[in-house]
Amino acid sequence: MKRMAFLFAALAVIIGLSGCDYLLGQKNLFADLEGNSTQKYSSMAPSDTLAALGRDTDSPSFYEDLTVDTTTRDAILDDLNTIIADPASSDSDVQTAATYSAEIILNTTETGDVVNSLADGIIDTANSGDSMTPESLVSSFIAPAGDVLDTQEEFSNFIQDMRDLKATFDALAGAVDPSVVSVDGNIAQAAVVAYALVSIVDASPGADDAAKAESLRSVLSSLLDPNIPDQTLILTGSPLTEIVADGTSLFTILAAAGLSSLSSLLSGI
């Protein structure tokens, strides 16, 4: 329980440094006046996609358009993944592509709502006097976006989005120098949530990913629904300690965000 308290404290520090919104930077409110068509991305080369995103991600309506136009959204993510996977890509381009990819996933799926619920969830759980467990940690993230628990399919899709987000952060970690501060604190906040949730799913009981996700959904549903008896989740290993071990992707991202001390806090070192 002490280690879980460390985790909550560290997340609270990240929130204080980055704010409650994961979105990066200041948005250009006039970007829409310049015209913003997501359709143009269907015929772009990956390098052109990267350049165009530098302007279009400032538009308030860009992510709304992509939420509706999922075909274009997926095409953009494919282009960004092509840049990330290309051995010839510079670390700078990989970092930029990974950051854009994370922003798109966060702004067009339930993952963004979960990350943005982090502050209130931590404060409420910490002030409740209840034991801080992996279940309470994750339910504090998901409670405001509880509709992802409605069906097994919805939760599985949500977990897959989180896995995609984690893969993007893995790529980001491989492209940054942990000795140089180059990652925004908001990305660090999102990364902690993604790694924590995916690690808890992977440590949950079940023969495969689908069964593990359903085990976690069942427990979380019981915690959020007063009509269902509370269940306890039995995890394998110490997933929340393992994600911040020296040299892991999250360790690197926190270091590159100037938050390396939080890795020690999270791991209880």
Secondary structure elements and their pairing?
Layout: H1 2-18, H2 46-56, H3 62-68, H4 70-85, H5 91-108, H6 110-116, H7 118-128, H8 134-142, H9 152-175, H10 185-202, H11 209-224, H12 239-242, H13 249-256, H14 261-267
Helix pairs in contact: 1-7, 1-10, 1-14, 2-4, 4-5, 5-6, 5-9, 6-10, 7-8, 8-11, 9-10, 9-11, 9-13
Would you give an account of this structure?
This protein is mainly alpha-helical and 269 residues long. The protein has a domain at 2-21 and 112-267. Helix content is 64%, strand content 0%. The chain contains 14 helices and no strands. Helix 5 crosses helix 6 (110-116) and helix 6 (110-116) packs across helix 10 (185-202). The radius of gyration is 18 Å and the shape is globular. The model is unreliable at 1-8 and 23-35 (pLDDT under 50).
